[in-house]
Amino acid sequence: MTDTLEEAVATSAGVGSGPLKVTHEIGSAIDVEYDGVQLARYVYQSDIDQFECPMPYFHPLRSLAGDLVTHNRPHDHRWHKGLSMTASHVSEQNFWGGGSYRPGAPGVGYVKLPNVGTLQHRGFDALEVGVDQVSFTEDIDWITQAGEHWVDESRAIVLRDFDPSDASWSIEFATTITNVRGEELRFGSPTVFGREQAGYAGFFWRGPREFAGEYTGGEILASGGLSGPEIMGQRADWLAFIGKHDLGENSSTMLFDQDPDNADAPAYWFVRRVPYAVVNPSIAFYDELVLQPGESFSRRYRLTIATGRWDAERIEAYRERHPL
Fold this sequence. Notes:
Elements: E1 3-4, H1 5-9, E2 20-25, E3 29-34, E4 37-43, E5 57-61, E6 83-90, E7 93-95, E8 100-101, E9 110-111, E10 118-129, E11 134-143, E12 149-163, E13 168-179, E14 185-188, E15 202-206, E16 219-222, E17 226-227, E18 238-244, E19 251-258, E20 268-272, E21 278-282, E22 289-291, E23 296-307, H2 312-321
Antiparallel strand pairs: 1-10, 2-3, 3-4, 4-5, 6-7, 6-14, 6-15, 8-9, 10-11, 11-12, 12-13, 13-23, 14-22, 15-21, 16-17, 16-18, 18-19, 19-23, 20-21
């Protein structure tokens, strides 16, 4: 049986059967629980400051064990929002938040400019709750700070593969971005414009504080036998970030996957564990992605959240059982 989330709102109750429960706060957010644990909250409308780039995002995200695996609005980067779709450089505009990188600017090159836009929720085309998954499709308008509509985005998100025996679950995130500006759009990153090892652009995760640190931070693995911070700027089919939680003895594995049919697969990865934990399969690490008027590009990713430390062998076995 499939229920609509709109039906849940009339009684302010959760929809779902068995351990899966979904509650839709109309005009605000979607909450997903499994076996009494709030696994995900998708905030699609909020009143955050313009400098932080208002946009839809996931936070909190938790493992089936209840461990928190995202950070939101940290003091070092208030515009980092759990798990989100971002673009730091779009034809001189900023759909990421914070300062914009400009070569030659003081310090590390970031300047506060009146160019921070908004990813504005337009509506849901579908919101469905099944026995073992939650899915929704969403339309989003990318609006510049000056009020110009530059991008139509369509997202399809599925929360699925809830598996207590494997202590894991997944988010599939597909996006199609269309240029409606009327002239070309150029998607870039600080690395495109000269800052080394700063090629962030696109699907972006900010991890909890305890996952970061030179000596106590998380472990990074990737396909092809890659490991450690040197994965930054390299291509790989998948990347895993494994962190230890402060409370209790649990670790969590964050496995980031990409559709092999993505035009840029395998992606170049932006990843850090010092001074903070972040992962991003970049859409424009070294080179700009150029969209002509009316053109679109699509990307599809999966994030699997697992309790415990998964090694490369276990990751490959999981991917074989759950092809993307």
